[in-house]
Specification:
The chain is α/β, with parallel strands linked by helices and 192 residues long. The protein has one domain: Aldolase class I (TIM Barrel), CATH 3.20.20.70. Helix content is 26%, strand content 20%. The protein contains 6 helices and 7 strands, in the order αβββαβαβααββα. It has a 7-stranded mixed β-sheet. Helix 3 links the parallel strand 4 and strand 5. Helix 3 runs parallel beside helix 5. It is globular. The structure holds iron/sulfur cluster (SF4). Iron/sulfur cluster binds next to loops. Keywords: 4Fe-4S, Iron, Iron-sulfur, Metal-binding, Oxidoreductase, S-adenosyl-L-methionine. Activation of anaerobic ribonucleoside-triphosphate reductase under anaerobic conditions by generation of an organic free radical, using S-adenosylmethionine and reduced flavodoxin as cosubstrates to produce 5'-deoxy-adenosine. GO terms for molecular function: 4 iron, 4 sulfur cluster binding; [formate-C-acetyltransferase]-activating enzyme activity; metal ion binding; ribonucleoside-diphosphate reductase activity, thioredoxin disulfide as acceptor. It comes from Lacticaseibacillus paracasei NRIC 0644.
Length: 192
């Protein structure tokens, strides 16, 4: 029974992008309204180890799925983000924090070219608390992100009425505010 299975629980630094990532992309969706606040450009990276039963994007659990991340795609993302009506970038997967080579490179370029004019959201199967105890690259990516939707998808806590997340254990976290306070601060526009 799928309901009885649970996602994987890695120890800190057990899974590393340097060992797992193939730097491949499952999908890129510019100008969408569903992956966070406002109009967004969404990058779906390939590869995830959490194996949550009921995962919304099972094919992207495979690190070899999709196509390579290229300079051409990155340039296209930057052009799309430059549109005035686009609020920002969203990273999804797969698992962005197991594809830090791609995600850090792109987020750094966004900060260099747009500063904080565009925001960056990321989904992760890791919780915030797990990420801050994990590898340096995960912490580096976390510091580049404004909003983190954290935690495994748990079928037992599935709730389709929640904003931007599939199960009640997941949180929408304001990362800079959380880092400044030393305790988790939720996204200020959270309704439910
Ligand atoms: S963390 Fe997300 S992408 Fe990974 S298995 Fe779970 S639901 Fe799927």
């Amino acid at each position: 029974m799928i309901e009885n299975k649970l996602p994987q629980n890695p120890k800190p630094k057990e899974w590393l992008a340097s060992e797992l990532s193939q730097q491949r992309i499952a999908d890129y969706k510019p100008f969408n309204f569903v992956d966070g606040e406002g109009v967004r450009c969404s990058l779906y990276v390939s590869g995830c180890r959490f194996a949550c039963p009921g995962c919304y994007n099972r094919v992207a659990q495979n690190f070899r799925y999709g196509k390579p991340y290229t300079q051409e795609l990155e340039d296209q993302i930057m052009t799309d983000l430059s549109q005035s009506y686009v609020q920002g970038l969203t990273l999804l997967g797969g698992e962005p924090f197991l594809n830090t080579q791609v995600c850090i490179r792109l987020c750094k370029r966004i900060r260099q070219e747009f500063g904080h004019e565009k925001d960056i959201w990321s989904w992760s199967g890791y919780t915030y608390d797990e990420l801050i105890q994990d590898s340096d690259d995960k912490l580096e990516l976390l510091k580049l992100i404004d909003i983190l939707v954290d935690g495994r998808f748990l079928l037992a806590q599935k709730d389709l009425t929640l904003q931007f997340r599939g199960s009640a254990n997941q949180r929408i976290i304001d990362v800079p505010a959380t880092m400044a306070a030393g305790e988790v601060k939720l996204w200020k526009n959270l309704i439910r």
